[in-house]
Amino acid sequence: MMLLISILFIFLLLAKGLIIYILSPEYEEAKYIFPFLCFYPLMMTMSETTNLGIVFLRKSYLNIIVSCFALLVSLILNFWLVPLYGSIGAAIATGTAYIAFFIARTVISMRIWEGFSVRKHMLVTVILYVLALYNTFGPDNGFQYAAALIALAAILGLYHKLLLEAWQRINVQSLKKAITNKGIK
After folding, report:
1. DSSP assignment of 135-163, as one string?
2. Residues 92, 130: contact at Cβ < 8 Å?
3. pTM across the whole model
4. Taking a C-beta distance cutoff of 8 angstroms, is the pair 79, 134 a contact?
5. How many Cβ atoms sit within 10 Å of the Cβ of residue 42?
6. At 117, is the secondary structure helix, strand, or coil?
7. Sequential pLDDT tens for the chain (185 residues)
8. CA 53, 55, 61: angle at the middle one, nearest 5?
């Protein structure tokens, strides 16, 4: 799930100029806040898959604690970053608060229920965060596209075993289908 969502995140960053063009040139400045606002759907979706301990043990009150923690992160970062960077600071605070939400929800869930590895999730989150920072504060040129492609390559490298396994399954299924269609058994 994280692989697919992170690829979509990167493609959104690669297409942000086109998105702004389609919406209106009046939204040109939105391209600087866009990367961090993309963390909301990414982190919410991922936290839904990593908070199973909270769900299965029916300890939904822990979600309130996690939400209050994320709110606190958001308030602190907004008070700090908005005077410095305006709407960009608010976007960074919002994106970072959703990352804090994901991490808190995941850690609490893993403490009360079966733990599972989220190392790749965390690495991908760091890669995407750095990419978002570069897209927000870096020069607006081809290097942003190069950075996105490097991030994409790094993420695909992290998930190379999963991708190879999926490719092998697709090949085996298509081979079986081809053999069945030709009457060879």
Report:
1. HHHS-SSHHHHHHHHHHHHHHHHHTHHHH
2. no
3. 0.84
4. no
5. 22
6. coil
7. 788 889 999 998 888 888 888 888 888 888 888 889 989 988 988 888 877 777 777 878 888 899 999 999 999 999 999 999 999 999 999 999 999 999 999 888 888 887 778 889 999 999 999 999 999 998 878 898 999 999 999 999 999 998 888 888 877 766 566 666 665 55
8. 100
